[in-house]
Amino acid sequence: PRVSRSSALASKATGYPIARVAAKIAIGRRLDEIPNRVTGKTLASFEPALDYCVVKIPRWPFDKFALGDRDVGSQMKATGEVMAIDRCFEAALQKAVRSLEFGKRTLLWEDSRWSKGEVDSYPLHPNDLRVWAITAALRRGATPEELSQRTGIDPWFIYKFQNIVDMERRLLSEPLKPELLWQAKRLGFSDEQIGTLADRLPEQLRRIRHEWHICPVYKMVDTCAAEFEAETPYFYSTYEKENEAEPLEGRKAVVIGSGPIRIGQG
């Protein structure tokens, strides 16, 4: 057994302690002899069950190396990565895109210099702008079936992008009401994104959201999809009703992350 960067990511995504289990196997223990500390009831042979979606996006350095070849192929070009967790793909994707820390570049972003021809051609070529190009093409009337056929991307993913674009259109055209705001937050829209589309300042939007009692809750990454009772300090935020995070007693400390993983950190 061995532990690599990929297995560290898998461990983070599932809550399964791969490094600890690999060390136990290395000294001769079997999977059915290693207890799962998260649940206290299952063994390491119990396959992790997920009731959430994880999205990983590479972090390319083309904001610093603007003249570099942006096409993505078999050669390693990413200098880091981000990972986001939520209940659905749309929300996890939007979290991950914001976590890339390209300024304020959310999925609403489009390069003002893009011509119609570029918007039509960009989705065809794997590069660091493909996510935004697909969204831009959908805004201009391209259909998921058409984009799937032209790009070779499974239509399931394109339809998820379409769900995000459809919500953008609703926020632009419909009055902002509690149900609409709730649905937008469920799809991963930030207060700033919703404010931009609904013509509100982020501070106003946040105040309205609190008045309507639309607040995030925290769900546990427990390796068993809540099938067993679990105890782990690993949570993700989402917009649902039930909160699984119990307040701790005594003094608390907040550790601020440094953003997306990049080469040279550590």
TrEMBL record:
Task: Describe the location of the Carbamoyl-phosphate synthetase large subunit oligomerisation domain by residue ranges.
Answer: 119-239
Q: Which UniProt keywords apply?
A: ATP-binding, Ligase, Magnesium, Manganese, Metal-binding, Nucleotide-binding, Pyrimidine biosynthesis
Pfam families xrefs: CPSase_L_D2, CPSase_L_D3
Q: Name one GO molecular function term.
A: carbamoyl-phosphate synthase (glutamine-hydrolyzing) activity
Q: Which reaction does it catalyse?
A: hydrogencarbonate + NH4(+) + 2 ATP = carbamoyl phosphate + 2 ADP + phosphate + 2 H(+)
Task: Report the record's Gene Ontology biological process terms.
Answer: glutamine metabolic process; pyrimidine nucleotide biosynthetic process
Q: Which InterPro entries match?
A: CarbamoylP_synth_lsu_oligo_sf, CPAse_ATP-bd, CPSase_lsu_oligo
Q: What's an example GO cellular component term for this entry?
A: cytoplasm
**Which PANTHER family does the UniProt record give?**
CARBAMOYL-PHOSPHATE SYNTHASE [AMMONIA], MITOCHONDRIAL, CARBAMOYLTRANSFERASE FAMILY MEMBER
**Name of the protein this chain belongs to:** Carbamoyl-phosphate synthetase large subunit oligomerisation domain-containing protein
Q: Which organism is it from?
A: marine sediment metagenome
